[in-house]
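Exercise 7. Given the components listed, write out the predicted structure of the assembled complex. Treat all entries as one system.
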Amino acid sequence: MKARKAILLVGSPKGRNSASYNLASYLLNELQLKGFAHKCFFARDLEKTEDFDRFYSALLDSSLLLVVFPLYVDQLPASLISVLKEIRSRSRGFAELSDKQLVAIINCGFPETRQTDPAVAIMKIFSDQCGFQWAGALALGMGAMLSKRKPSDHDHMTRHIAASLKAAAVHLENHKPIPVSVIEMIAKPLMPHWLYIMVGNLGWKYRAKKNRVRSLLTDRPFQP
Amino acid sequence: MNTVILNGLSIQMRKTMNRITENLFKKVSTHSPDIQLFHLDEKKIAPCLGCFSCWIKTPGHCIIDDQQEEILRALAVADRIILLTPLVFGGYGPELKKVLDRIIPVLLPFFYKVRGEIHHPQRYPRTRSLGAIGFIERKNPEEIELFRDIVERNAINWAARSTAIMILEGDETDEYLMAESDKFLETLEGKS
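Answer.
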């Protein structure tokens, strides 16, 4: 049987060193176990026409597009918006992409998953305008915790993420949309909000101290 | 009063929108002569690297040496920020978004709670207002509603005291544009 193909489009400028990539690669591995072949592309690298052409022909040859990105200013990072715009202008009518499912994976640095709602809506509009089969958005808050920590069954903090991604893979294998229960599972907070805020604020101070700029952290270099 | 206008429209769209920008410019300048207009497609601005150096290595400065710095200098002391952009899937176009992705040097890294959500505090606290003019080729209620929602959410990031939003198709009459831009500026000033 011919292997189904998935395309991963990474919107994080940090590429493979990003929390976004960690999340998506877990889902890709699950899909691989179910017989999917896959290719990975980075939005930041698709500016040149020949690079975009390569991406677009891989997309035409696939049955599933996964778009993963960090939430930047309530929306998608700029380079990803450019790529999605180009997909819309390149697609020749609905028929070209209508046999492909589209899934968004959104990682938000703030604790509240609901801050990703506008980005989810953007992805849904993109999907509708290009004729994809919208399979849903897996969105989560506290995403910064995943920059050095991959989802795992054995990690009490991330096991619900792993479970959600595994369940999503089963639905995508069967060419079905991701159910609300799976979307809600990944959206659960990794820790209490107060703890995330405390750890986050201490973390910035610690990292600044390591770089010997702790006392400059609140500087206002452009104050006249 | 310092006003910064970030124009994320392409040259072609700028021609269509010229009537509104000129009118706005005239009206804003009667209140304050301090306006800085940035045509973003004329600026060499790289995308954000997501490195957070502007918070933890060079606080307040982006490590990318390009024309974003002059925009950050202007934004730091802006009382009014006006965004012009095409609507792309209901959100901002990439030219404007590239600049906004790199505004974090004018914010502080810390988390604080506002309107029940966590955000980053201002590095340069000021009483600001935020306006956005969106250009849409064919009116689509879903995209328009989303755009309004996004601008309102962005206003939280800027700690803006008032928000004004205007959406145009480009074929509006001069009378309509004049009336709408008056309303827009009044809302921006918090007068309506």
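Discussion: Chain A touches chain B through 50 residues (CB under 8 Å). Strands of chain A lie at 5-10, 37-42, 64-70, 101-107, 133-140.
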